[in-house]
């Protein structure tokens, strides 16, 4: 699986936070050995409830895929590899999203799953000290 997990989907593709039913990208990072379930947010963070709800639904779908056996059934070669959910954004997430992602990070860490958030605006960055990805 040599796919660039930092590339954003082409216009018109049904990938992104607003499409909860789609796993945007699954990649095996050969250098770290970890499996990355990547989701994209190409829209600006508007701080609205709808976008935050869509993010929650997408994260729930990813957790279900990872923890309910579908990923293991589909990709048995990835069993027992470290797992991370990666959110790739074009912009720094809103303060509401950072707070939500911080809570998600704590909860999924209990399952041994990492959460990584980065944004493409002005190069790769983190969403700030509030969510913890600056600590990586």
Brief descriptors of the model:
136 residues; alpha/beta; four-stranded mixed beta sheet; 3 helices; 29% helix; 18% strand; disordered N terminus; disordered C terminus
Q: What's the total number of strands?
A: 4
Percent helix range: 25-40%
Radius of gyration, in Å, reads: 14 Å
Count of discrete domains: 1
The main sheet orders its strands as 1-2-3-4
- Uncertain stretches of 5 or more adjacent residues: 1-6, 122-136
The biggest beta sheet is recorded as: 4 strands, mixed
Characterize the overall form: globular
Give me the number of helical elements: 3
What string gives the helices and strands in order? EEHHEHE
Class from helix and strand fractions: alpha/beta
Mean pLDDT: 84
Tell me the β content.
15-25%
How far from one another are the termini? 24 Å
Plain-language structure description:
By secondary structure, this protein is α/β, with parallel strands linked by helices. The chain has one domain (25-135). It is built from three helices and four strands, in the order E-E-H-H-E-H-E. The protein has a four-stranded mixed sheet. Strand 1 and strand 2 form a beta hairpin. It is globular and about 40 Å long. Residues 1-6 and 122-136 have low confidence and may be disordered.
